[in-house]
Amino acid sequence: MSATEALWQFAIVAALLTITPGMDSALVLHAAIRHGRGPAFAAGAGICLGALVWGIAAALGLSALFAVSALAFTVLKVVGAAYLIFLGARMLWSAFRPGHAAAAPAAIAAPGIRAAATKGLLTTLLNPKVAVFYVAVLPAFLPADVPAALFGAALASIHALESAVWFTVLILGAQALRRWMARESTQRGIDVVTGLAFVGFGAALAFTEQ
Hints:
Blueprint: H1 3-19, H2 23-35, H3 37-60, H4 65-68, H5 70-96, H6 106-109, H7 113-125, H8 128-137, H9 148-176, H10 178-181, H11 184-206
């Protein structure tokens, strides 16, 4: 396999992974609907950075630790699951709190750009499934005659770029419906659905086998 073939084939695999519904898309869409473009793009940037970190780590062989070490995988799994459940519980609390739209907790209602980016980054870094995906998939697209770290970074950058494009589509789509999205009943429903999704993601992750 040539380097060009590897890049194109990985781009197809990464694109399919990107558009598959998951916690990353849910987080960005929720941020776009509840908080606006700035926090949504920041969350997306954090997610892309996290994917880039895992991609480089996989190319260097570092994230293979989570594929072979039961203890490392379990620790990351438990921490990641707890974090996702915490995010989901906060969204549910916001949804059912009296005065939901007008008096939501400040941390929920108006997160800063840095806070949104950190949330996206942690959501990706604390997900052992991302680490295992890169460990299992990325080596198959590393030609023997290329620098592993550099080419791994290139592959991860492709995934990050595709994710950025997908997140932009989600954000602009949400903004196009901003009048309907601004209704209190809609906002409450969004928090409930997204909160339950994150709790579900966290619970599923907690019971994931290595």
